[in-house]
């Protein structure tokens, strides 16, 4: 090969290499979601799957959050309790349902989920948050029957934790049920099977907040919250960015709700409840940003610390059973993280101050003042 041909040959290989890298990069980007789903699939039928050991809710280790002396409330503590069911934090891969001592899941709860989603209720009630064998993120990315079984399985832990809380710690106090995403779906069944048919419990229920969960309007477990003074009612919604109705339709099309026999079934065109946190009611009336009491990014804050509120960040309106929310103005209220993180609830709460005020008002209403 001549000295002139050698550089041309080298350049040709360099161009071919760069082209191959570009093609591979584009292909990886296009199929990245499929690759991640495949990696998170436990690849074992749920019928033959051996789940992690069951929690013992008589032990403090089975609770992510609870008061120091749960059986002896003090005058310095809030007058109500909050039973909090956490969202999906476990990605999947090894298990359909996460062990309750899974390190990364516990870290994500303490650093992200608890400050942002249980935080709004710290000044409203004593927080009781059970660890439970939650269904993995993968189980929410597929409609396979195995995934539905994993989500049904998780409900058994939540129901057992609630019964333990009632028997040992509630002592007749007013209480609130809060669930987020997967936790909200499980809480919806809890409301129907453990609370709705019990007049004594219903009389003490301040409200239930099911955040990012679909509840059909024709079969709600409790009456929808239609005013700020109402108690014993249900506030439930899923949210999408305003101006993206197709995304809302897709979420409703894929939504699973509880059937009469405790099975998870598709919504199948049924209307969904939509509570607007800015208005404190199930309504299709618009709520302008001037009504927004405050969003917060509490990720990484010490538990119980009050975050700085960002007011007038968003407007919101229920349309077609979905809460359409305008884009927040602050850069701290934008999704970030890995592919998996972006498919969980975000590490901020757009309605932090609104939920705190709403719950405080309902507690006061239930207590007659």
Report on this structure:
This protein has 369 residues and is an alpha/beta fold. The protein has one domain (46-366). The chain is built from seven helices and 13 strands. It has a six-stranded mixed β-sheet with strand order 1-3-2-4-5-6, with helices on both faces. It has a three-stranded mixed β-sheet with strand order 7-13-12. Strands 8-9 form a two-stranded antiparallel ribbon. A hairpin with a 4-residue loop joins strand 10 and strand 11 (281-282). Helix 3 (145-170) packs across helix 4 (182-195). The model is unreliable at 23-32 (pLDDT under 50).
Give a quick rundown of the structure.
The chain is an alpha/beta fold and 369 residues long.
C-alpha geometry? globular
Share of helix, binned: 25-40%
Strand order of the largest sheet: 1-3-2-4-5-6
Radius of gyration: 23 Å
Distance between the termini: 94 Å
How many H/I helical runs?
Answer: 7
Mean pLDDT: 91
The helix/strand series, from N terminus to C terminus, equals HEEHEHEHHEEEHEEEEEEH
- Could you describe the largest sheet, including whether it forms a barrel? 6 strands, mixed
Q: What structural class results from the helix and strand content?
A: alpha/beta
Low-confidence stretches: 23-32
Number-wise, the strands total 13
Strand content: 5-15%
Number of domains: 1
Task: Fill in the keyword field for this structure.
alpha/beta; 369 residues; 13 strands; 15% strand; globular; 3-stranded mixed beta sheet
Helix-strand layout with pairing:
Elements: H1 5-40, E1 63-65, E2 80-85, H2 103-118, E3 125-130, H3 145-170, E4 175-180, H4 182-195, H5 199-204, E5 205-211, E6 233-237, E7 239-241, H6 245-254, E8 256-258, E9 264-266, E10 275-276, E11 281-282, E12 316-319, E13 322-325, H7 352-366
Parallel strand pairs: 2-3, 2-4, 4-5, 5-6, 7-13
Antiparallel strand pairs: 1-3, 8-9, 10-11, 12-13
